[in-house]
Amino acid sequence: MRSATPFLIAGLLVATSAGLVFADGDHAQIERGRYLVSAGDCYACHTADPSKPFAGGRPLQTPFGAIYSANITPDRQTGIGAWSDDDFYRAMHEGVSANGERLYPAFPYPYYTHVTRGDVLAIRAYLQTLEPIANAPPRNKLPFPLSERAVMRPWNWMFFDDGAFHPDPSKSASWNRGAYLVEGLGHCGACHTPKNVLGADMDDKALAGGTIENWFAPNLGADLRTGLGGWSEADVIDYLKTGRNSHDSATGPMSEVIQYSTSQLNDEDLHAVAAYLKDLPGEAGRVPSSASGQQTSSSGLSGSGEAIFLDQCSTCHRSNGEGTPTVFPPLKGNANVQQADATTVIRVILQGARTTPTDARPTPFSMPAFDWKLSDAQIAAVATYVRTAWGNVAESVSADDVGKLRRTLHAKAE
């Protein structure tokens, strides 16, 4: 059958352009796959052009260079239309493509390896229903020898353990479902776990916060100051479902995660994720030497930082740093503000931010950029102020910190 036109024969849908045949009873499997694709946030990484969904080509910036996402539409030449079920499962479970090439962990197979075969095949069933799009992503921009995929053999030997998820019998079914989603399809640690010099997870600091694409993904542990210790399960659910809660609003890469993934999860799974995250331990971190939690502008903080804040920021965030919850996030007690790495704070001041629209909260709010208005020293001063005022505890920010990030972002924009 060479026609590209789908047609119906005796209850069988034959979509020959994708090489796909499925019975009416398989629609539940396809719908399950669609849901799991959302849970895995596949659209965000595998879509460079919204008019070509899932056709790949989006550059994923790593410390080693740009890696371009694959075309996962059922196009037989440039996508995965010619792959078998076993090919697809091996890619997800072992990080090996249909032609035997080793995949880079920018495709998060170290997490997807925990996904059951049934769920993997449901994902494939859904992807096979997509419109085939001919699109060959650009070549990765990696220096030698990293450009040679053979380097992934020793990397996998050192850092990758393939295997299915094993529930913890001492925990509830909901907790285990949350663990399966967070540690598997959700691949939360890809952003929120710090990496070693070779780009592998630092397992002893799982979900303690990590740097990605010039953002800092915050600590998800139980720490009161830098983690989720002050959030309830309901707070976690609100954030994942709507992109906002009384503590914070999603910006940066997390905006896409909310929009395309977590806001699409059902309530049962959101409760499960929240239960798992709220059960994570805290990290015994040191108190930054430059902040005691008791400082004010009269005890070491830059007066210019406070003055800039009152002049430029207090209209939305209020002079007491409490903001307007779910509209303008509070800075007082804000975990993002108090992370050891100030990258996100500096970046938001430089470039501004925009909350993500969701079905529950369709109206986004924006913060203006100040890179055109404030010098490196001024941004450092106001960043230091918000990180150490109102009982916040975090190290100060230097003008050099700001200048370095400003130059990096400017070069990236060119």
Automatic annotation (TrEMBL):
Where in this chain does the record put each Cytochrome c domain? 28-131, 173-281, 300-390
List of residues binding heme c 3: 313, 316-317
Q: Please list which residues make up the signal peptide.
A: 1-23
Where does this one sit in the cell? Cell membrane
Q: Which cofactor does it need?
A: heme c
Q: Which UniProt keywords apply?
A: Cell membrane, Electron transport, Heme, Iron, Membrane, Metal-binding, Repeat, Respiratory chain, Signal, Transport
- Where is heme c 2 bound in this sequence? 188, 191-192
Q: List residues binding heme c 1.
A: 42, 45-46
Q: Which PANTHER family has this protein been placed in?
A: ALCOHOL DEHYDROGENASE CYTOCHROME C SUBUNIT (PTHR35008:SF8), BLL4482 PROTEIN-RELATED (PTHR35008)
This chain belongs to the protein called: Alcohol dehydrogenase
Q: What is the lineage of its organism?
A: Bacteria, Pseudomonadati, Pseudomonadota, Alphaproteobacteria, Hyphomicrobiales
